[in-house]
Protein 1
Amino acid sequence: MVSKKLVLTNAQGFHMRPASVFATAMGKYSCDVTIKFNGNQYNAKSLLNIIAACIKCGSEIEVICDGADENEALAEATQLIESGLGE
Amino acid sequence: MRITDLLKKSGIALGVKVANKSEAIDKLISLHEKCGNLKDVKAYKEGILNREKLGTTAVGMEVAIPHAKSDAVKAPALTAITVPDGVDYDSPDGQPCKLLFMIAATTDGDVHLEVLARLMQLLMHEDFTAQLKAAKTPEEFISIIDAKETEKFPDEPKAEVPAKKGYRVLAITACPTGIAHTYMAAESLQKAGDSLNIPIKVETNGSGGAKNVLTEEEIANCDGIIIAADITINLARFDGKPVLQCAVSDGIHKPEELINKIVNKEVPVYHHKGGSADAPKKRGGAYGHLMNGVSHMLPFVVAGGIFIAIAFLIDIACGVNAQEVGSAFGTVTPVAAWFKTLGGVAFNLMVPILSGFIAMSIADRPGLLVGLVGGFMATSGATFADPGAANTVPSGFLGGLLAGFVGGYLMLAIEKMCDKMPKALEGIKPVLIYPLLGLGGILVVMCAVNPFMGMINSGMSNGLNAIAANPAMMVPLCALLAGMMAIDMGGPFNKAAYAFATLNLANADDQAYIIMAAVMIGGMVPPIAIALSNTFFKNRWTDEERKNAPVNYVMGLSFITEGAIPYAAGHPLQVIPSCIVGSAVAGALSALFGCKLMAPHGGIFVFATMQGTWYFYLLALAIGAVVSMLMLALLKRPLKK
């Protein structure tokens, strides 16, 4: 299991479009991807779950990948979030 | 921010048929437009379509949430439709969408994200989306969301959302008579609350009593209370909450402003002082207290007066000879006696109610006892020497006004004095000490005042007898007597004039009959003048006053002078002089015309006993009433609209 703490930088937080980008990207991997935020864990492969977490700009989240391709998954997650999820 | 705060009934359309995505979007936008959520419909639609170009907003599970954050949005809001047949919305799972929400978000703040997140959390439950899709009415749709939201987020911060279905803003509306403005203000506040999406509950303190009463729980959970009233409202139950006091017309004309003040916390917290001296600084001061008394008195006067008039009508219809029965007129037949006696019960409560509610307006609940008892003593005329009031002169409604104001301020003074008492006695103050001291105080005051009424009365009687000794003074005497009837409408002047006339009646000569005619006409002019003024000078009176005025025609013609009391009590400086002059003119004319009346009571019902002089009598009455009406129009300026 690998994990990394990241700060969300896109201005409007994890709203629908970035969430869908992120969920779709994570869906490619076979490992479990979880977002830990505010003491709760959310399935990062589910658009609904990510949005339900209500993650706003500047929030610190922890992305946890656990499975065969966990390193690749975490790398892409980091890259996506740091780049502002295409915004 | 709750979803139900953003979603209005009018923003929901169920069972919609749409052919494609673009029609679905148009439908949702049109709902936003209908609710008045948008500044610029075209710009908002552009925002929605641009967002859809970036990728579909369908989220799976037959749900889509199109949204746009835009300057074209007035305030954050939601609309929703259900599409039972489904619509192709390029959903990631390929399913058609059956449940669509559209978010309109302003460019400032995170409402957009919060609503989205909250919706998602609810929509993850399939039973919930199934329930929504099956909802039959917008009300049901909202209550499903509300229930789920409450279940899911039980511990919402209270300031933002009180309890389930909690009201953020409460209001009370009241106007002096409680027939029109009370309800207009309530409706206007309710509408403004709906359009601002702020749950509001309005209690109406109208003539039918308080409706839609605010509960303790609602008060505890609300942001603040708006008091839109022209009479004083007991504020003890709002201790520790922000209370905004204003005129009832503000409630009608600027409800949004009032609600926003409460929501934006611009209103200071109200601390009830248990009725201490600085508490009753309410709108209108003495006028507000007075109107509180008058508005409570009105129904007693109207209902009681009509019952008494019916009694006269029954007696006359049964062929009773008014001249023979004298003062028993109206109680001769058993049915008439029933109406007159029991109508009289309501009538006799009139002055105690007036003073009781004036005192209650001044000193809240503790004032009621002193005012009621003081008012009762004003009608009985009790004194130290004659507490049973067996042989006394009542001070009438003027004494009642005195009792109300003295009683109210007396109670405030007593409460202030009791501030220094030991804390241990706090509990028995309102149940024992205040009533005891207040009762003792008002009894002493009224027993001290009432003997003067007797003196005025006997002084007047002596003077009248002296004048009557000179036959040349007949016309001035009649003018004086008639004028006296209108001064206090039941107090020492009125009683002196009436007693003088009825005692003289025993002489059974023409002089006595002429005097009786003048006295009765003096008592008939005031209510008729009031009714005429309300008919021809509408702008002098409030809606409530006008609505109650027509019954004054009936009371005037029935010689029930008391019908004018609510108007005289409300505007004594204008109404009383006008009535005195009009009555005096009528009395003088009646004497000049030589009108003779053999019955001591009965108004128009005893005109038959007037030995053919009744048409002159009617003319004198009409002239007196018109004079009174014109004078009132001069003295009482039109109300400001």
Protein 2
Amino acid sequence: MIRFLLGKLAYLIPTFIGITIVAFGFVRLLPGDPVLLLAGERGITPERHAELSAQLGFDRPIWVQYLEFVGNLFQGDFGLSITTKKPVLTEFLTLFPATIELGLVAVTLATLIGIPLGVFAAIKRGSWFDQISMGTALVGYSMPIFWWGLLLIILFSGILKWTPVSGRIDLLYFFPNGTGFMLYDALVSGQSGAFTSAVRHLILPSVVLATIPMAVIARQSRSAMLEVLGEDYVRTARAKGLSPFRVVSIHALRNALIPVVTTIGLQVGVVMAGAILTETIFSWPGIGKWMIDSISRRDYPSVQGGLLLMAGVVMMVNLIVDLLYGVINPRIRHS
Amino acid sequence: MTAATPIPSERRRILREFWFYFSENRGAVIGLGVFLLLVLLAIFAPLIAPHSPTLQNRAALLVPPFWQEGGSTTFLLGTDAVGRDILSRLIFGARQSLFIGCVVVSIALTGGIILGLVAGFFGGWVDAVIMRVMDVILAFPSLLLALVMVAILGPGLTNAMIAIAIVLQPHFARLTRAAVMAEKNREYVMAARVAGAGRLRLMFRTILPNCLAPLIVQGTLSFSNAVLDAAALGFLGMGAQPPIPEWGTMLAEAREFILRAWWVVTFPGLAILVTVLAINLVGDGLRDALDPKLKRS
């Protein structure tokens, strides 16, 4: 197991180097002089420009800048945001819980609905349930989620007035020493109505963000289940006279779920990309919206740090999924 | 010799067999029908659209669709905030979306096939370098990478297409590489090599035609992804710029009216959904028809 883990980690090193090169290179290609951006609208004298350039290290050879950039990364220094003058890592970590909360709820929702949908569709192959659920899954898979979000706002916030249009919680509530996870903060604060308010704010964004992963998980569960149901050991289990429920839940489902775990893990990248759109539509103060704002403000240390950190998160989750796959799949564990 | 040069009757038989399996999937046939209809709409847009897509009708701002009170049959699906006919903009928008899909898939497919062929055929450090670069591209959330690339290149349709193609391309490279690795030690390749075929001939004429099935399916999926991503970039203000009648850009312009004029928001999104759904239906059908494992079962 440890060799397996080390092998995977060694495999990640070139990818990690590549990611740092991309993030470092990209922002140096962004249009606009970073020193002028820092100076703001008042303008700057040529002497002060040269001085600031030297201070920020822009006058040194590019590879020196790169090595220093990587060295700083290892000390947790991702630079300072141009707009807020705060460390990029602090900004990221402040906003990240909002995205984790939204993403976790979305992936949970997608899994809880997607797996049963796919499994039942496979068991009842060819039935109207199969056709309707797989049709729905394909529609979900094809959904432009930014439009889907707007439609839900029109219906549930505009017409029915059930849910708020944007934000994470009513302005009435405030948790000065919160963890950033609103559901948890609201629950432990003991303020009446806080938790309900947080849930009501979370419903629409998480449904929107869950749409595509749910469709993918449902389709994958169905095809994995179909494959397993055709295997000899399932036929043997049936022939032994086991109840259909037992055959499906004990013999088939456990094996069918192995590839589905990988699929769920791969949805983290999808959720990260989806968070950019979902958070923009619902003004959800997470890293997706922060990235969009940073790009439009040309706050390039933030764009650089955000790119790196988001890719890092996706890489880490994929590694965990790979390891988990090794743990639950005996064929890989013993090979 | 290879599948690249079958005799005409053989080719007809293959096509007939393909159509037999494809047409068994009702959804795929419907998807293909809708897609062909969209292609026709796009080609004949100037003849079909009742108005110019960019003509601003100051006397008819935010007119609702014809079946609603206040609507008129002059503007069947209503008008937007500056009085442009939504139906005409949607019809012209089909041009943008199909064009985006074609260009993106062509670039991604060509780039991916070449990289995948080279990586799979040569192996060794060439393979390692190419595939690590692909891993790096895949490590970023695709939309985010496309967004940052467009921010560098400057917002606009061309740059958006280039960015999306780069993001989608590793999938083709991986597929091609895997297929080449599986094929390159087979007997027919050995035979061609012994017969004196050069490297380029081996790669493109002998091996490639036998790796096409998964690439075609991936191409269809990428087409729908390209349409979705381009619309998303348009929605975020980084894709096609106004007044181009691109569906995502139309949605971005409509955002502030969502609670006042539902039609400016509903129809462009519906157009994106229908297009993407049709292409995905075709993709599912192609996968089933081209997958020999499913055929036998």
